[in-house]
Please model this.
Amino acid sequence: MANEGVTQPVTRTVTEPAIALRAATKRYGTGPAVLEAVDLSVGKREFVSIIGPSGCGKSTLLKLVAGLSPLSAGTIAIDGMTPSNAREIVSFIFQDATLLPWRTVRENIVLGLELEGMAKARRHEKVDRVLSLVGLDNVADSFPRQLSGGMKMRVSIARALATRPQVLLLDEPFAALDEMTRDRLNEDLLRLRDEHQWTALFVTHSVAEAVFLSTRIIVLAPHPGRLARDIPIDLPFPRTEATRSTAAFEQSVIDVSRALRGVSLQ
Ligand code: ADP
Ligand code: MG
Model:
């Protein structure tokens, strides 16, 4: 053998974090720092929730990662790229489903693929797949006004997933929905994550929702927004309705609520 006796270097697979913020600081104009020196690494396929009092910079943090707003200092890398170069691999889901009212469900979902310049036949094949994934096959030709809030949110999720993002940013996507619909969508979201394997950064006000979905929860403190706590959620996957009534789930909810109260009273 040619290499016999030669010491081979140990090959190690170094997996870069999917999202890495280093001393990320943000001010709007000449205002005070909204986020100050945030260091955060999110590994590939992690599901990280961000919670914190209103105005502590949660939405700002997602906008920075999405490249929708420039950093004032520090760096952000998405899969090693700057946020503006990484736009193709990032999808953003907002609380308001932001569907075009004059387009059907199918046409709304196809929109992202049209913008990508995908051929028409492939677009429709992809949309069919994603529609059945989120359980919308039977309303493909309906208009947004004909759908419930929960279904509109499903369309919004389908649209975000159609482009097969590697990073999914979700800003309080289920805040306007009733609890049962929200719980169902949470379970669906985890199922979709199993199939698609994206990395998620999820903003919510609901501690129970954050615990149910996350591998880790980041608690932000306000004025200026900064990282206060980083709490791993070790509940096993798959998580189902039954997960919510386990003692471990309840304990995590208590721990995170306490951490949140701590930063809210500062
Ligand atoms: P959160 O999502 O945690 O409620 P935001 O990121 O929306 O917080 O806002 C954080 C702070 O930044 C708030 O004080 C808010 O008023 C301010 N802010 C957000 N967006 C802008 C903007 N476009 N221009 C100026 N100030 C902003
Ligand atoms: Mg917000």
The longest strand covers residues 33-42.
